[in-house]
Amino acid sequence: MKSPAVLVVGAGIIGCTIAHELAAFGSRVQVIDARQPGQGATRASAGILAPYIEGHELTLLRSLGGRSLALYDSFIERVRTDSGRDVIYQRNGTFELAFGDADVDRLSALSGALWKEGVEARWIPPLAFDDYEPLVNAGAKGALLITPHGFVGVTSLTLASAAAAERRGARFKTETGAIRIHPMPAGRVGVQTQSSSWDADRVVLAAGSWSSQITVEGADAIPVKPIRGQLIQLAMKPGQIQRVVWGPDGYLVPWPDGSVLVGSTVEDVGFDENSTEEGVSKLRSAAARLVPSLADAPITGVRTGLRPKGPDDLPILGLSEAVPGLIYATAHYRNGVMLSPLTARLVGDLVFDRGADPALRDLTPSRHGRL
Ligand SMILES: Cc1cc2nc3c(=O)[nH]c(=O)nc-3n(C[C@H](O)[C@H](O)[C@H](O)COP(=O)(O)OP(=O)(O)OC[C@H]3O[C@@H](n4cnc5c(N)ncnc54)[C@H](O)[C@@H]3O)c2cc1C
CB-side exposure of 369: number of CA atoms within 13 Å? Predict the structure, then answer.
């Protein structure tokens, strides 16, 4: 059977990793985006891979994140091989600090629960901080080290995925934003932009926060809203922080060049991608609370992005009821990087009829109306 031709709308991390997956398995892939690849929420992302922190309160997210994390090593290897590029990727754990008694109780209980699930996690008392992260706040009451966690360089991963997809024949067209998606004769799907019309056997809608601005004929409005996140970069000598350090007001990601990413704000301000003095100052305080010596570190960069949030904070992933052949892959909110290997695989399952994964039932677009 001839592989389907697929049009992917959106070239963030979700669109680019899907394009690579589909092109690698033989699809003819076209990606369209209003901007260059990786310019949406993706450009601001901290790249933390931490389902057992992010999924504390949402069991389904935790299990999806755990599945996606298990795919990550081979996913990165494939992107590196297919693109011929390096991707920043480190898996040496997260170190979550507890400052109050409630945090101590929560994290030590979590440590035990994770061990029972077979996830390596260890409670570290303050006296042992020097063996792991000597610079963290000595006033903390302990820390939970979750060993399988890590982080990835999101821009390097997104651009390498786009390059890998292109090497497998995918094409990218920028400055071309979709306005409307509609059914066509013979089961094909049409996409209209300001200046052109496209069609394909399947269309994947991966436009992040902007998904809600695209009309899908016969469907309800796509319930995705932008939630702004700001992140700052501080200068530091390389090697002083080993792993992701997490706390009640923020987190630190140690970059290989020695700088530290500090994230992040969570703001409901519409489609405003500007940074603010208040946001930057909050992040600096959060950093100093985790590692006091960061109080005076020079700020070398500020980034913002709009996280695509759905009504239940979980992705909208699966086939459209309104337009046969349309697949939604959006609303990844705070976890699009962590969930990208699993998302690409699930979209591949749908495009190539590889059998229904139970996760698709949980993430079905129809849980939010007629989509
Ligand atoms: C500060 C911050 C920190 C984060 N940290 C993490 C983290 O540590 N770990 C993690 O897993 N996640 C993290 N996230 C979340 C993660 O970045 C997002 O979930 C992810 O980037 C979403 O990817 P996406 O491709 O769906 O959307 P986007 O990256 O927003 O990409 C959407 C793309 O669609 C394009 N587009 C828009 N309109 C149209 C149109 N009409 N037609 C065609 N294309 C269009 C845009 O130009 C853009 O390129 C963070 C986010 C922020 C903001």
Answer: 11
Q: How far is the CA of 139 from the centre of ligand 1 (A)?
A: 36
User: Does position 56 have pLDDT exceeding 80, yes or no?
Assistant: no
Closest CA to 251 of 143, 340, 105, 332: 143
Domain range annotation of the chain: 5-77+154-224+311-368, 91-149+225-309
**The two three-digit tokens of residue 6, written as one number:** 């697929």
Q: What is the pLDDT of residues 245-258, one digit of tens each?
A: 999 999 999 998 88
> 3.40.1190.20, 3.90.1150.10, 1.10.12.10, 3.30.9.10: which CATH number matches 91-149+225-309?
3.30.9.10
Pocket test residue of 337, 339, 340, 347 for ligand 1, highest count of atoms within 8 A of CB: 337
Atom of ligand 1 minimally distant from the CA of 330 = 26
Question: Which whole number is the average pLDDT over 273-292?
Answer: 97
Report the Cα 293 to chain-centroid distance in Å.
Answer: 29
Q: What is the pLDDT of residues 202-223, one digit of tens each?
A: 999 999 999 999 999 999 999 9
Q: What letter represents residue 300's amino acid?
A: T
Pocket (CB within 6 angstroms of ligand 1): 9-15, 32-35, 39-42, 44-48, 177-178, 206-210, 214, 229, 231, 263-264, 305, 307-308, 330, 332-338
Burial of 367 (0-12, 13-18, 19+ CB in 10 A): middle
The b/e string for 301-325 (b: 16+ C-beta within 10 A; e otherwise) is ebbbbbbbbbebbbbbbbbbbbbeb
Nearest atom in ligand 1 to the alpha carbon of residue 50 is 9
* Cα 201 from Cα 116, distance rounded (Å): 45
Closest C-alpha residue for ligand 1 atom 42: 177
pLDDT digits (tens, 9 = 90+) for 285-322: 999 999 999 999 999 999 999 999 999 999 999 999 99
